[in-house]
Amino acid sequence: SLGRLGLSVLGVDAALENVRVAREHLQEDPLLCPHVRYRQMAAEQVLTEHPEGFGCVAALEVIEHVAQPLEFVRTLVQLAQPGAPVFLSTMNRTWVSWLVDIVAPEYLLGSVPRGTHQWHKFVPPHELQDMLRAAGAETVDVRGLVLDPVANSCHVVERHCGPLADAGVQANYILCAVKHKK
Prior knowledge:
Helix content: 25-40%
Order of helices and strands: EHEHEHEHHEEE
Low-confidence stretches: none
Strand order of the largest sheet: 3-4-7-5-6
Number of strands: 7
Largest sheet: 5 strands, mixed
Strand content: 25-35%
Oligomer: single chain
Number of helices: 5
Distance between the termini: 29 Å
Structural class: alpha/beta
């Protein structure tokens, strides 16, 4: 993690329970404690408290849960300093993602509570790229994320790595954009 590299990390979540769990996990790794803080707040609140922005912004597996994705992306880009990277990971809106991210974990494996994900809220890469462009950032890379529930791990794969167009990003993906310099 960035905290292990000695960088200062602020983790935020609007849900108090998520922050509580993150703080518990933080206590298990004393090397991270001096570098990582968790707070319950919305991204918009962070913007008011930190108008100077951040050298890197990441929102992983969040955008598919927010009511107004474009406004959320605008806030993330505003939180980034000019030239800083903005990372987002989410789920593509394909039949593959429906199977991999809803049917399997919510109905077959029971590893995620039913109703956690709503397929219509999943965001295809081209839509997220359009939102970022409108917010003042340009996408520099999109890669697929392959989850391995048995090993409890995740692997990054190339966007084009199989027989289907965009095979690597059919279910989950991570995107890196850079905020325009002023």
